Amino acid sequence: MTQAVILCGGLGTRLREETEFKPKAMVMIGSKPILWHIMSHYRAYGVRDFILCLGYKGDVIRDYFLNFRNYGNDVQVDLSSGTVTALSEEKADWRVTLIDTGAATLTGARVRKAVKFIQDDRFLLTYGDGIANVDIGQLLSFHAAEGKKATVTAVRPPSRFGELLLDEQTVRSFVEKPQTTVGWINGGFFVFDTAAARDFPDNDDLSLEQDVLEQFSAKGQLSVFKHSGFWQCMDTYREMQILNDMWAKGSAPWKIW
Question: Domains in the chain and their CATH numbers?
Fold first, then answer.
């Protein structure tokens, strides 16, 4: 069974209006956190086993899943007996592993801490603050066909993210968050060979972007899956509003379930 690792530990400082009291992965789109939207997208492609790398205010995410049946559903509470009865219930068959990867741990180290829970020879990986209509089935097939240690999904939004210098189907240079010059940037939605991730240095200062991916690209071991469809991060209040407006109007491109 293919598993998806989601990085949920960042501070979200550019979205301070929302993240002062909760992690960015729990910022709402409609009545559900963006994390739910990301996981629902994966589930539409048959992925139901998730590993969440917690950090900043991780207890909020932990509480959400421990009480998942009571969030967003109608419930009846009998105060005399303490009995809680679900009057409506969202159907979800996800298996969710919640791991505390540290408040200040960098992204590569968070992935390294999650690897011991991986059961397959490859796994999916993404950030907990970006949503897209990436075809996960095609992404997995592409990674298998390319035969490299990792695959990154490249997208074409405005700048501010890791820029990829491409040579056919291989990443030749990975530079984190420059001014975009060639039009393709790091959109997350990775596939990694598990063996390669197990070889990550055991170092809490290990950056996935600046250490691991730059090294992989320098060695020709990072393939690129080009996604020309919808992709949007949620770094700022304005971007949160964009996603909420799409959802409210029933025009959310990522909703395929």
Answer: 3-248 (3.90.550.10)
